Amino acid sequence: MATVYYTASSLDGYIVDEADSLDWLTSRDIDEAGPFNYNTFIESIGAIVMGSATYEWIVKNQPGQWMYEQPGWVLTSRPHIIAEGHPVQTFDGDVAELHPKLVAAAVGKDVWVVGGGDVAAQFVAEGLIDEMVVSYAPCTLGAGSRVLPIRSEWVLVESAINKDFVCARWRKG
């Protein structure tokens, strides 16, 4: 069991651009069965956690039925943002208090810190992220939201190319 931050990044370390868009990411070519692919990753996940900005992006850009089968939490002080029919819980507090609940809900599988970067930074600051898996796209954004806006040390344990992406698995150093 691990707590994993699985994400994508521009070469200059952003996850979304200034317009809150992922067009720079979704327009790229990736092998859905290739190295570090999402489908294999999501099979290892037992619980998810994300910030309110990520949740609101999903609701806006992928409306309808909730896409995850795993128990999920949204870090927010605004529980009213949760769309009807979405089986997620809200949490407003220290991620160190939430983490044991995530681990228990994952039932032996991994916990996915979906993001964004500020949420991942909270988990990193508490020493709760075991691995970070990043798929780097061949572009720079110049501004936007950082993938991980906190100083931290990591050790590269695996890397591969998946079509347009250079993918890397890092463990905390």
Structural notes for this entry:
The protein has 5 helices and 10 strands. The chain has 173 residues and is of the alpha/beta class. Strands 5-4-3-6-1-7-10-9 form an 8-stranded mixed β-sheet. The chain has a two-stranded antiparallel ribbon with strand order 2-8. Strand 9 and strand 10 form a beta hairpin.
Helical content (DSSP H or I, runs of 4+): 10-25%
Order of strands across the main sheet: 5-4-3-6-1-7-10-9
From the N-terminal CA to the C-terminal CA, the straight-line distance is 18 Å
Give the number of helices. Answer: 5
Task: Work out the strand percent.
Answer: 25-35%
Shape annotation: globular
Series of H and E elements: EEHHEHEEHEHEEEE
Mean of residue pLDDT values? 97
Mind telling me the C-alpha Rg? Answer: 15 Å
Total strand count, please? 10
Instruction: Determine the structural class based on helices, strands and strand pairing.
Output: alpha/beta
How would a textbook summarize the main sheet? 8 strands, mixed
Task: Extract low-pLDDT stretches.
Answer: none
